Structures are given as structure tokens and as C-alpha cells.
Amino acid sequence: MTIRAFSSEVETGSRQENASKQDSRDRQTSLSGYDVIVLGAGAAGLMCASVAGQRGRSVLLLEQARNPAEKIRISGGGRCNFTNLRTSPANFLSDNPRFCTSALSGYSQRDFIALVDSYGIAYHEKTRGQLFCDGSSRQIVDMLLAECRKARVQLRLGIRISEVSKGEGGFAVVTDQGEFRGRSLVVATGGPSIPKMGSSGFGYKIAEQFGLKIVPPRAALVPLTFDTALLAQFGDLSGVSVDAVVGCGKTRFDEALLFTHRGLSGPSILQISSYWREGQDLLIDMAPRVDVLDVLKRLRRDHPRQEMATALVDVLPKRLARKIADATAGPERIADFSDKLLAKVAADVKQWRVRPNGTEGYRTAEVTLGGVDTSGLSSKTFEAKSVAGLYFIGEVVDVTGHLGGFNFQWAWSSGYAAGRHL
User: Fold this and answer.
1) What average pLDDT score do residues 95-120 get?
2) What SS3 state is found at 244?
3) How many CB atoms within 10 Å of residue 112?
4) Which residues of 2-18 are buried (b: 16+ CB within 10 A; e: fewer)?
5) Of the listed ranges 16-30, 86-100, 137-151, 245-259, the one predicted with least confidence
6) Are 58 and 34 in contact (CB under 8 A)?
7) How many Cβ atoms are within 10 Å of 222's Cβ, its own excluded?
């Protein structure tokens, strides 16, 4: 049996003796059971385990991957956008929009920043309240592991869970490394986004096993794709980026847009993907701070011999300007464009209506929309209302944040809320 457990003992020449003592303690704890078993050593699971452990609870943290917190490690281009200064309930989607309020106020972005500060981790605000490590995302992982060490949390990696059950004394978790028992069970297994990190819908199965409802999950914060016809029209714009206002229904996001070889991506598209549904159009303004019609009329007056593609370079990247000019099929010179035709070109820039045919799916989705229905959970403790001792936290719950550090803050806040009540 391979055991990866935290130990505060210093490695010395008596390492084998210390390991033997640790194994003995592990076996004794396994036989008597733990106060808390946490499934998933991601952001929420690590936070919950450390908080519960520092309150004197004996905690076992189980993770199927070979390394903990892989999503933290790869996030933010390796620098981890660990929270957002502007976090509020308005930044989250859920069938019950008010569910997140208690947890976010109980452990706010300021609380997590204070923890980061206490470890001397340098960070900066990149844009729109997003905080990133100056160095590596590994600093956040190491900080959380250090918090778990302080709490004497036992961590087992590369473990496979085959069965979860509940009896009078609590919960039993059957794994390929043996059976473990705990008075409380916390499910922090995330959703199926980024499956290469080991993500799956395992937490939903546990919820359904115990009679909790699931809000149908779907990929969120994910690039959108075009059908064959749109790809033929716009596929050669791959790599072109513009600042844009992207709308779907009444929702708008004002951030960068990126054309890809599959369709559209960039922050504005990732944001709107959480709101977009199949069959809906996007309305895109590709020059949100420019009166394009006014610019074109001025250029017609001052530079009448210019081609439309050249004129549009004043407000758009060259390849995109050429694409829109070619699609217009107007006169060769801007001098020969009527007011009506200029207005059409301006509308193509300011009011581009396009219908994606889908998303890139969980493979590239940063998070999962939907999950364990919050109507079955306490908003203060995250305990299942119908199953004493069973908790769900983090991404597995039907609460999804906007892009920009909000989902990590949800992990910290929900993990803390459960941890302090275990």
C-alpha cells in the first residue's frame, strides 16, 4: 500500500523509525475512523480539510490524482488568479442566486488575501480586480498544503474510490487502499471540466445515491464553436483579437474577443458562454468605444480614394477589416459609398449577429455550470438537509463564478464554511 501522508517530523537518520511510527498511527486511525473524510484535494477540499483540522478534527483527505490541486497549478497561465477584489454574489450563477451570499460574507476575498499575505506571497492586480501571484501558482498550492500540515491532515494520493455508504456511525469509503470510516463526509470532487486533470462527475453520483437533486451540468467559461459554413467564412481569422462587447439576451461582457480555428474565444466569449444556449444568437460590438459610422463618413470626406479595407484599419485589425470590406461587396473607393452603405458597414462592425453551433465542451471548459442542487443544502454549513454529516462544496455545487478569480474564491468560501462547522 502506498501512503502519502503529511508529517511534521524532521527527516533524520532515523527516517525509517519515524515512518514506522507514522504507519502505526495511520493504522490505528484507520481502524477507529476519522472525524472527517474529504473527497478531493483541490482548492475547496484543501481549504475545508485545513480548517476542520485546525479545529482539532482528525481529517483524511483522499485524492485520485497523483498530485494535489492540479487545477490551481495550471490556472492563470501558471500564476493562479486566486481571487478577485470585486467579488460579490452578483458574480455567480445558480438556480438559487442568493445561496452563495452567506459563504462569501463568512470568508471573503479579504480573508483569503490575508492568508496569502501571512505567507509572504507577492501578488498583483492584473485587471478588473483579478489578483495573480507574482511568481508561481505553486506558491498557493504550497500554502494550502502547509495549512494542512499544521492541522495534521492525512493526505492520500492516487487513490481509487469504489463505494461510499452510510451507517449508524457515519460513512464508509471503500478504496483500492482499503476502507476508511468517518463521522462526516465532504464531497469536493469538482465537476467534469478539464478531464485531463482527473475531473469527472463522481460527486454527482454520490449526491444522487443519497437522494439529492442535480441541476443538469454543462461546460462553462468555454470557447464557442462555428458550424462548417461559418468556419469557411471566418476560419482564416484565427489569431485575430479585438476588444468587444458581447451580448446574449440581456447579458453583456466588455472584454477581449479572439477568433480561433474552431470559432470564438477570449475573455468576453468565455464569460458569455455561461449564459449562451444552443440556438441563440450573440450580438457583438467589435469597436465598442468608437462611432464607426462617424469615422467612415470623415474618411470619405478626407480620404475619398481609400479602399474600405484600408479605412476600416482605423478601427479594426487588418485581417478583420479586409474580411468585413470583402463581405460588403461595395464600390472600390470609399468616396463611392452612399450613407446607407456606410451605415451597413458600420452595423457589421458594431452589431455583428452570429449564432455559434456549440461549445468546445468539458475538454477546455474552465468550470462546470450546474451541479448539486442548492435547495438540498444548508447555505451556512453546506450540509445536506436530508443526510446528516454529508457535505458538498466547491464546483460540485450549483454555483458558478464569472471568469477572473471568482471560482477560486467560491472554493475558499465554501470550503471554509463547511470546515468550520464539521
Assistant:
1) 98
2) strand
3) 23
4) ebbbbeeeeeeeeeeee
5) 16-30
6) yes
7) 26
Q: Are 407 and 271 contacting, i.e. CB atoms less than 8 angstroms apart? A: no
**CA–CA distance, 401 with 409 (Å, rounded to integer):** 9
For helices 339-350 and 292-302, what crossing angle results, to 10°? 140
Would you tell me how many other CB atoms lie within 10 Å of the CB of residue 390? 25
SS3 breakdown of the chain: % helix, strand, coil, rounded to 5? 40, 25, 40
Provide the pLDDT for residue 142: 98
Q: Compute CA distances 393 → 103, 186, 207, 380, 417, whole Å.
A: 11, 7, 12, 11, 9
Longest Cα–Cα distance in the chain: 89
Cα→Cα distances 124→18, 120, 184, 209, 295, Å: 41, 13, 38, 43, 37
Quote the cell numbers at residue 384.
445536506
Contact assessment for residue 370 and residue 380, using Cβ atoms and an 8 Å cutoff: no
